[in-house]
Amino acid sequence: MEPSAKLLAGGDGDDHIVGGDGGATIFGDRVREEPCAEVDGDGDGRDLVLGGSGEETVSAGGGADRVEAGGGQDRVCGEKGDDVLYGGAGDDDVSGGSGDDTAYGDDGADEVTGGSGDDTLYGGAQDDVVAGEAGEDTAFGGLGDDLLVGGSRTAGKADAGDTLYGDAGADRLVGDNGDATGSFDLDGTPEEAGGPDVIHGGADADTAFGGIGADEVHGDAGDDHLEGGNGADRIFGEAGEDELAGGGSGPHPDAGDTLFGGDGPDVIAGDNAVLSTSGTATPVAVRPGRLHTHRVEPLAGGSGADVADGGAGNDAIFGQGGADRLRGQAGDDYAEGGPGVDWVEGDQGDDDIVGGSHAARPVRRTAAATP
Questions:
Q1: One-character DSSP codes across 81-145
Q2: How many CB atoms are located within 10 Å of the residue 163 CB?
Q3: Fewer CB atoms inside 10 Å of the end CB: C or N, the chain?
Q4: Cα angle value 130/152/123 (rounded, 5°)
Q5: What is the pTM of this model?
Protein backbone atom coordinates (compact mmCIF):
# COMPACT_ATOMS: atom_id res chain seq x y z
CA MET A 1 0.00 0.00 0.00
CA GLU A 2 1.29 3.49 -0.82
CA PRO A 3 2.37 5.72 2.07
CA SER A 4 -0.59 7.68 3.43
CA ALA A 5 -0.80 11.40 2.65
CA LYS A 6 -2.58 12.43 5.87
CA LEU A 7 -2.55 11.52 9.56
CA LEU A 8 -5.88 11.95 11.35
CA ALA A 9 -6.53 11.18 15.02
CA GLY A 10 -9.70 11.62 17.03
CA GLY A 11 -8.16 11.48 20.50
CA ASP A 12 -10.26 10.72 23.58
CA GLY A 13 -14.03 10.99 23.34
CA ASP A 14 -16.67 10.25 20.71
CA ASP A 15 -15.28 11.47 17.40
CA HIS A 16 -16.48 11.91 13.80
CA ILE A 17 -13.60 11.62 11.31
CA VAL A 18 -13.82 12.00 7.51
CA GLY A 19 -10.87 10.86 5.42
CA GLY A 20 -11.54 12.93 2.30
CA ASP A 21 -9.61 12.51 -0.96
CA GLY A 22 -6.22 10.85 -1.06
CA GLY A 23 -4.70 8.29 1.28
CA ALA A 24 -4.75 8.60 5.05
CA THR A 25 -3.77 6.89 8.28
CA ILE A 26 -6.61 7.33 10.75
CA PHE A 27 -6.67 6.66 14.50
CA GLY A 28 -10.03 6.76 16.21
CA ASP A 29 -8.33 7.51 19.52
CA ARG A 30 -4.65 8.37 20.10
CA VAL A 31 -1.83 8.20 17.57
CA ARG A 32 0.38 5.14 17.96
CA GLU A 33 3.64 4.18 16.31
CA GLU A 34 2.12 1.00 14.83
CA PRO A 35 -1.42 1.08 13.38
CA CYS A 36 -3.70 -1.92 14.01
CA ALA A 37 -1.80 -3.05 17.12
CA GLU A 38 -3.97 -3.16 20.24
CA VAL A 39 -2.23 -1.66 23.28
CA ASP A 40 -3.20 -0.85 26.85
CA GLY A 41 -4.36 2.70 27.36
CA ASP A 42 -6.43 3.02 24.16
CA GLY A 43 -9.33 5.42 24.54
CA ASP A 44 -12.88 4.11 24.79
CA GLY A 45 -14.78 6.67 22.75
CA ARG A 46 -17.48 5.63 20.26
CA ASP A 47 -15.98 6.90 17.02
CA LEU A 48 -17.46 7.23 13.52
CA VAL A 49 -14.88 7.09 10.72
CA LEU A 50 -15.90 7.77 7.11
CA GLY A 51 -13.15 7.02 4.65
CA GLY A 52 -12.42 8.78 1.40
CA SER A 53 -11.45 7.67 -2.08
CA GLY A 54 -7.81 6.81 -1.42
CA GLU A 55 -6.01 3.94 0.27
CA GLU A 56 -6.49 4.23 4.00
CA THR A 57 -5.38 2.50 7.19
CA VAL A 58 -7.91 2.87 9.98
CA SER A 59 -7.23 1.92 13.62
CA ALA A 60 -10.54 2.41 15.39
CA GLY A 61 -9.09 2.01 18.89
CA GLY A 62 -11.09 1.26 22.04
CA GLY A 63 -14.85 1.58 22.28
CA ALA A 64 -17.70 0.46 20.05
CA ASP A 65 -16.71 2.13 16.79
CA ARG A 66 -18.17 2.31 13.28
CA VAL A 67 -15.86 2.51 10.26
CA GLU A 68 -16.94 2.91 6.62
CA ALA A 69 -13.74 2.86 4.59
CA GLY A 70 -15.04 3.94 1.18
CA GLY A 71 -13.10 3.50 -2.08
CA GLY A 72 -9.55 2.25 -2.34
CA GLN A 73 -7.57 -0.70 -1.09
CA ASP A 74 -8.03 -0.17 2.64
CA ARG A 75 -6.90 -1.73 5.90
CA VAL A 76 -9.54 -1.47 8.62
CA CYS A 77 -8.92 -2.59 12.22
CA GLY A 78 -11.66 -2.46 14.82
CA GLU A 79 -9.32 -3.26 17.71
CA LYS A 80 -10.97 -3.18 21.16
CA GLY A 81 -14.73 -2.93 21.55
CA ASP A 82 -17.77 -4.24 19.66
CA ASP A 83 -17.24 -2.60 16.28
CA VAL A 84 -19.10 -2.36 12.96
CA LEU A 85 -16.68 -2.25 10.02
CA TYR A 86 -17.16 -1.81 6.26
CA GLY A 87 -14.34 -2.28 3.78
CA GLY A 88 -16.15 -0.47 0.97
CA ALA A 89 -15.04 -0.64 -2.66
CA GLY A 90 -11.64 -2.14 -3.41
CA ASP A 91 -9.73 -5.19 -2.19
CA ASP A 92 -9.73 -4.58 1.56
CA ASP A 93 -8.27 -6.13 4.71
CA VAL A 94 -10.85 -5.89 7.51
CA SER A 95 -10.07 -7.13 11.03
CA GLY A 96 -12.35 -6.95 14.03
CA GLY A 97 -9.80 -7.42 16.81
CA SER A 98 -11.06 -8.08 20.33
CA GLY A 99 -14.76 -7.69 21.02
CA ASP A 100 -17.89 -9.00 19.32
CA ASP A 101 -17.59 -7.37 15.92
CA THR A 102 -19.61 -7.16 12.71
CA ALA A 103 -17.43 -6.82 9.61
CA TYR A 104 -18.27 -6.49 5.91
CA GLY A 105 -15.81 -6.86 3.07
CA ASP A 106 -18.27 -5.23 0.64
CA ASP A 107 -17.12 -4.92 -3.00
CA GLY A 108 -13.76 -6.32 -4.04
CA ALA A 109 -11.79 -9.46 -3.21
CA ASP A 110 -11.52 -8.92 0.53
CA GLU A 111 -9.92 -10.58 3.55
CA VAL A 112 -12.18 -10.39 6.60
CA THR A 113 -10.97 -11.59 10.02
CA GLY A 114 -12.96 -11.69 13.23
CA GLY A 115 -10.47 -11.81 16.09
CA SER A 116 -11.01 -12.96 19.67
CA GLY A 117 -14.74 -12.33 20.15
CA ASP A 118 -17.98 -13.80 18.84
CA ASP A 119 -18.09 -12.13 15.44
CA THR A 120 -20.44 -11.87 12.45
CA LEU A 121 -18.55 -11.63 9.17
CA TYR A 122 -19.61 -11.02 5.55
CA GLY A 123 -17.37 -11.53 2.54
CA GLY A 124 -19.24 -9.54 -0.08
CA ALA A 125 -19.40 -9.48 -3.85
CA GLN A 126 -16.21 -11.19 -5.06
CA ASP A 127 -13.83 -14.03 -4.11
CA ASP A 128 -13.21 -13.40 -0.43
CA VAL A 129 -11.29 -15.00 2.45
CA VAL A 130 -13.22 -14.94 5.74
CA ALA A 131 -11.75 -16.29 9.01
CA GLY A 132 -13.54 -16.11 12.35
CA GLU A 133 -10.51 -16.95 14.52
CA ALA A 134 -11.27 -17.45 18.25
CA GLY A 135 -14.85 -17.34 19.51
CA GLU A 136 -18.24 -18.54 18.27
CA ASP A 137 -18.42 -16.85 14.89
CA THR A 138 -20.97 -16.64 12.08
CA ALA A 139 -19.61 -16.11 8.56
CA PHE A 140 -21.29 -15.53 5.18
CA GLY A 141 -19.33 -15.80 1.95
CA GLY A 142 -21.75 -13.90 -0.27
CA LEU A 143 -21.17 -13.86 -4.02
CA GLY A 144 -18.01 -15.33 -5.50
CA ASP A 145 -15.86 -18.39 -4.81
CA ASP A 146 -14.95 -17.85 -1.17
CA LEU A 147 -12.78 -19.48 1.50
CA LEU A 148 -14.51 -19.51 4.89
CA VAL A 149 -12.59 -20.66 7.98
CA GLY A 150 -14.33 -20.82 11.33
CA GLY A 151 -11.04 -20.67 13.24
CA SER A 152 -7.60 -19.54 12.14
CA ARG A 153 -5.44 -20.31 9.11
CA THR A 154 -2.75 -21.35 11.60
CA ALA A 155 -2.75 -24.77 13.27
CA GLY A 156 -3.23 -25.08 17.02
CA LYS A 157 -5.07 -21.80 17.60
CA ALA A 158 -8.05 -21.75 20.00
CA ASP A 159 -11.53 -21.87 18.44
CA ALA A 160 -15.14 -22.59 19.41
CA GLY A 161 -18.23 -23.72 17.50
CA ASP A 162 -18.84 -21.64 14.36
CA THR A 163 -21.61 -21.31 11.76
CA LEU A 164 -20.58 -20.89 8.12
CA TYR A 165 -22.72 -20.10 5.05
CA GLY A 166 -21.02 -20.28 1.68
CA ASP A 167 -23.94 -18.64 -0.16
CA ALA A 168 -23.48 -18.33 -3.95
CA GLY A 169 -20.33 -19.56 -5.68
CA ALA A 170 -18.08 -22.61 -5.42
CA ASP A 171 -16.86 -22.16 -1.86
CA ARG A 172 -14.42 -23.94 0.44
CA LEU A 173 -15.52 -24.07 4.07
CA VAL A 174 -13.52 -25.23 7.11
CA GLY A 175 -15.24 -25.37 10.48
CA ASP A 176 -12.13 -24.98 12.64
CA ASN A 177 -8.48 -24.12 11.89
CA GLY A 178 -7.50 -24.79 8.29
CA ASP A 179 -6.97 -23.42 4.81
CA ALA A 180 -8.12 -24.17 1.27
CA THR A 181 -6.61 -27.67 1.48
CA GLY A 182 -8.68 -28.73 4.49
CA SER A 183 -8.74 -28.91 8.29
CA PHE A 184 -5.75 -28.76 10.63
CA ASP A 185 -5.44 -30.40 14.08
CA LEU A 186 -7.40 -33.55 13.17
CA ASP A 187 -5.30 -35.63 15.54
CA GLY A 188 -7.43 -33.99 18.22
CA THR A 189 -4.62 -32.02 19.84
CA PRO A 190 -5.21 -29.47 21.18
CA GLU A 191 -8.93 -30.09 21.84
CA GLU A 192 -9.60 -26.36 22.23
CA ALA A 193 -8.68 -25.90 18.55
CA GLY A 194 -12.19 -26.88 17.49
CA GLY A 195 -15.86 -26.99 18.40
CA PRO A 196 -19.25 -28.19 17.12
CA ASP A 197 -19.69 -26.31 13.85
CA VAL A 198 -22.64 -25.87 11.47
CA ILE A 199 -21.73 -25.51 7.78
CA HIS A 200 -23.97 -24.76 4.77
CA GLY A 201 -22.29 -24.83 1.38
CA GLY A 202 -25.06 -23.00 -0.45
CA ALA A 203 -25.50 -22.97 -4.22
CA ASP A 204 -22.85 -24.39 -6.57
CA ALA A 205 -20.19 -27.08 -6.06
CA ASP A 206 -18.71 -26.61 -2.58
CA THR A 207 -16.01 -28.31 -0.51
CA ALA A 208 -16.55 -28.45 3.25
CA PHE A 209 -14.50 -29.79 6.18
CA GLY A 210 -16.06 -30.05 9.64
CA GLY A 211 -12.81 -30.43 11.56
CA ILE A 212 -12.65 -31.19 15.29
CA GLY A 213 -15.88 -31.83 17.20
CA ALA A 214 -19.37 -33.07 16.40
CA ASP A 215 -20.23 -31.01 13.32
CA GLU A 216 -23.29 -30.61 11.10
CA VAL A 217 -22.39 -30.19 7.42
CA HIS A 218 -24.87 -29.44 4.60
CA GLY A 219 -23.82 -29.43 0.97
CA ASP A 220 -27.06 -27.76 -0.18
CA ALA A 221 -27.39 -27.40 -3.98
CA GLY A 222 -24.55 -28.43 -6.31
CA ASP A 223 -22.07 -31.31 -6.54
CA ASP A 224 -20.34 -31.08 -3.17
CA HIS A 225 -17.41 -32.76 -1.40
CA LEU A 226 -18.03 -33.01 2.35
CA GLU A 227 -15.78 -34.34 5.13
CA GLY A 228 -16.90 -34.49 8.74
CA GLY A 229 -13.52 -34.68 10.46
CA ASN A 230 -12.76 -36.57 13.65
CA GLY A 231 -16.01 -36.15 15.64
CA ALA A 232 -19.46 -37.75 15.59
CA ASP A 233 -20.74 -35.73 12.64
CA ARG A 234 -24.03 -35.34 10.76
CA ILE A 235 -23.50 -34.80 7.03
CA PHE A 236 -26.19 -33.99 4.46
CA GLY A 237 -25.32 -34.04 0.76
CA GLU A 238 -28.77 -32.84 -0.35
CA ALA A 239 -29.23 -31.95 -4.04
CA GLY A 240 -26.50 -32.82 -6.53
CA GLU A 241 -23.92 -35.56 -7.05
CA ASP A 242 -22.11 -35.44 -3.72
CA GLU A 243 -19.14 -37.11 -2.03
CA LEU A 244 -19.50 -37.64 1.73
CA ALA A 245 -16.88 -38.93 4.17
CA GLY A 246 -17.66 -39.24 7.85
CA GLY A 247 -13.96 -38.83 8.65
CA GLY A 248 -11.49 -37.17 6.32
CA SER A 249 -9.03 -37.79 3.50
CA GLY A 250 -6.20 -38.63 5.92
CA PRO A 251 -5.56 -41.34 8.57
CA HIS A 252 -7.01 -39.47 11.56
CA PRO A 253 -9.21 -40.61 14.48
CA ASP A 254 -12.95 -40.67 13.78
CA ALA A 255 -16.17 -41.42 15.66
CA GLY A 256 -19.57 -42.74 14.57
CA ASP A 257 -21.13 -40.48 11.95
CA THR A 258 -24.58 -40.06 10.38
CA LEU A 259 -24.60 -39.41 6.63
CA PHE A 260 -27.49 -38.61 4.27
CA GLY A 261 -26.78 -38.48 0.55
CA GLY A 262 -30.02 -36.78 -0.51
CA ASP A 263 -31.11 -36.38 -4.13
CA GLY A 264 -28.68 -37.36 -6.86
CA PRO A 265 -26.12 -40.15 -7.26
CA ASP A 266 -23.82 -39.93 -4.24
CA VAL A 267 -20.77 -41.74 -2.91
CA ILE A 268 -20.66 -42.16 0.87
CA ALA A 269 -17.88 -43.46 3.13
CA GLY A 270 -18.49 -43.78 6.85
CA ASP A 271 -14.91 -43.26 8.03
CA ASN A 272 -11.66 -41.91 6.50
CA ALA A 273 -11.43 -42.29 2.73
CA VAL A 274 -10.23 -40.66 -0.47
CA LEU A 275 -13.31 -40.25 -2.66
CA SER A 276 -13.53 -39.71 -6.40
CA THR A 277 -16.31 -39.80 -8.97
CA SER A 278 -13.77 -40.23 -11.77
CA GLY A 279 -14.64 -42.83 -14.38
CA THR A 280 -10.96 -43.78 -14.77
CA ALA A 281 -11.07 -46.30 -11.91
CA THR A 282 -10.39 -49.92 -12.83
CA PRO A 283 -13.76 -51.40 -13.93
CA VAL A 284 -14.84 -54.30 -11.72
CA ALA A 285 -18.07 -56.21 -12.38
CA VAL A 286 -20.38 -56.52 -9.38
CA ARG A 287 -22.68 -58.72 -11.43
CA PRO A 288 -23.15 -59.01 -15.21
CA GLY A 289 -23.88 -55.61 -16.75
CA ARG A 290 -23.65 -53.71 -13.43
CA LEU A 291 -20.52 -51.66 -12.75
CA HIS A 292 -19.83 -48.66 -10.49
CA THR A 293 -18.16 -45.34 -11.40
CA HIS A 294 -17.04 -44.24 -7.93
CA ARG A 295 -13.62 -44.79 -6.42
CA VAL A 296 -13.16 -45.20 -2.66
CA GLU A 297 -9.72 -45.66 -1.10
CA PRO A 298 -10.23 -46.48 2.61
CA LEU A 299 -7.69 -45.05 5.06
CA ALA A 300 -6.68 -46.07 8.57
CA GLY A 301 -7.76 -44.31 11.73
CA GLY A 302 -11.55 -44.48 11.63
CA SER A 303 -13.78 -47.36 12.73
CA GLY A 304 -16.90 -45.65 14.04
CA ALA A 305 -20.39 -47.12 14.09
CA ASP A 306 -21.87 -45.11 11.22
CA VAL A 307 -25.39 -44.59 9.88
CA ALA A 308 -25.58 -43.89 6.12
CA ASP A 309 -28.67 -43.21 4.02
CA GLY A 310 -28.23 -42.87 0.26
CA GLY A 311 -31.55 -41.19 -0.52
CA ALA A 312 -32.72 -40.79 -4.12
CA GLY A 313 -30.31 -41.61 -6.95
CA ASN A 314 -27.85 -44.40 -7.71
CA ASP A 315 -25.56 -44.31 -4.70
CA ALA A 316 -22.37 -46.07 -3.60
CA ILE A 317 -22.20 -46.51 0.19
CA PHE A 318 -19.24 -47.86 2.16
CA GLY A 319 -19.60 -48.47 5.90
CA GLN A 320 -15.92 -49.33 6.45
CA GLY A 321 -14.86 -50.25 10.02
CA GLY A 322 -17.30 -50.55 12.92
CA ALA A 323 -20.88 -51.80 13.29
CA ASP A 324 -22.62 -49.73 10.60
CA ARG A 325 -26.23 -49.30 9.43
CA LEU A 326 -26.51 -48.66 5.68
CA ARG A 327 -29.63 -48.01 3.61
CA GLY A 328 -29.65 -47.38 -0.11
CA GLN A 329 -33.26 -46.13 -0.41
CA ALA A 330 -34.49 -45.22 -3.92
CA GLY A 331 -32.28 -45.92 -6.94
CA ASP A 332 -29.93 -48.70 -8.03
CA ASP A 333 -27.41 -48.65 -5.20
CA TYR A 334 -24.19 -50.38 -4.19
CA ALA A 335 -23.78 -50.86 -0.42
CA GLU A 336 -20.76 -52.41 1.28
CA GLY A 337 -20.67 -52.99 5.03
CA GLY A 338 -16.94 -53.53 5.47
CA PRO A 339 -15.37 -55.04 8.60
CA GLY A 340 -17.70 -55.33 11.59
CA VAL A 341 -21.24 -56.57 12.26
CA ASP A 342 -23.25 -54.37 9.87
CA TRP A 343 -26.91 -53.88 8.95
CA VAL A 344 -27.32 -53.21 5.21
CA GLU A 345 -30.62 -52.61 3.37
CA GLY A 346 -30.93 -51.90 -0.33
CA ASP A 347 -34.57 -50.73 -0.21
CA GLN A 348 -36.08 -49.63 -3.56
CA GLY A 349 -34.33 -50.30 -6.88
CA ASP A 350 -31.95 -52.97 -8.20
CA ASP A 351 -29.24 -52.94 -5.54
CA ASP A 352 -25.91 -54.67 -4.96
CA ILE A 353 -25.13 -55.46 -1.32
CA VAL A 354 -21.82 -56.73 0.04
CA GLY A 355 -21.71 -57.67 3.72
CA GLY A 356 -17.94 -57.46 4.05
CA SER A 357 -15.53 -55.74 1.67
CA HIS A 358 -15.20 -56.17 -2.07
CA ALA A 359 -11.75 -57.41 -3.09
CA ALA A 360 -11.13 -54.44 -5.38
CA ARG A 361 -12.15 -51.03 -4.03
CA PRO A 362 -12.25 -49.11 -7.33
CA VAL A 363 -15.59 -50.03 -8.93
CA ARG A 364 -17.43 -48.63 -11.89
CA ARG A 365 -21.11 -48.67 -12.90
CA THR A 366 -22.61 -48.60 -16.39
CA ALA A 367 -26.23 -48.79 -17.46
CA ALA A 368 -27.98 -51.84 -16.00
CA ALA A 369 -28.31 -54.92 -18.17
CA THR A 370 -30.34 -58.05 -17.65
CA PRO A 371 -29.27 -59.68 -14.34
A1: S--EEE--SSS-EEE--SSS-EEE--SSS-EEE--SS--EEE--SSS-EEE--SSS-EEE--SSS
A2: 18
A3: C
A4: 5
A5: 0.85
